[in-house]
Design a protein that fits this description.
The chain has about 120 residues and is an alpha+beta fold. It has a domain of about 70 residues. The protein contains 2 helices and 5 strands; from the N terminus they run αβββββα. A 5-stranded antiparallel beta sheet has the order 1-2-3-4-5, with no helix packed on it. Strand 3 and strand 4 form a beta hairpin. The longest helix is centred in the N-terminal third of the chain and has 29 residues. The C terminus is likely disordered.
Length: about 120
């Protein structure tokens, strides 16, 4: 009986499995902590409260003057492009207040659904 190749392949398999597990663990550790490169900073968005019914934040954009943050909320809509009740919410970065809450209508045009119209007059 020739058992040489089988005996040799078991240690190689064990080493390969250990090396693969070590790589996966190291990759998971690398993903655990975000890295910020100066001059940029990382801030947790705690003061931005979504409007009623706005869930699953997705896309983020900052205005060119750095005053406003736009957040797209998916609200569980179909991901194949069929549309649904999503929101595009504009926040004042300094105060965290909602400036505008847009909800695309069935025609595809954005309809303003802001309950906070007075914020527009407070802006400088």
């Amino acid at each position: 009986m020739n058992s040489g190749p089988k005996l040799l392949s078991l240690p190689i398999l064990a080493v390969a499995l250990c090396a693969g597990a070590a790589l996966l663990l190291r990759a998971k550790q690398a993903l655990a902590a975000p890295v910020v490169i100066p001059p940029y900073t990382l801030t947790t968005l705690t003061k931005f409260v979504p409007p009623t019914g706005a869930t699953q934040p997705d896309d983020l954009a900052v205005s060119s003057d750095g005053a406003d943050l736009w957040v797209g909320y998916g609200n569980g809509v179909d991901t194949t492009g069929k549309g649904g009740p999503s929101n595009a919410v504009e926040y004042d970065i300094s105060s965290g207040k909602v400036v505008r809450n847009q909800h695309p209508g069935s025609s595809g045009r954005a309809q303003d659904r802001s309950d906070n119209e007075s914020n527009l007059g407070d802006r400088e």
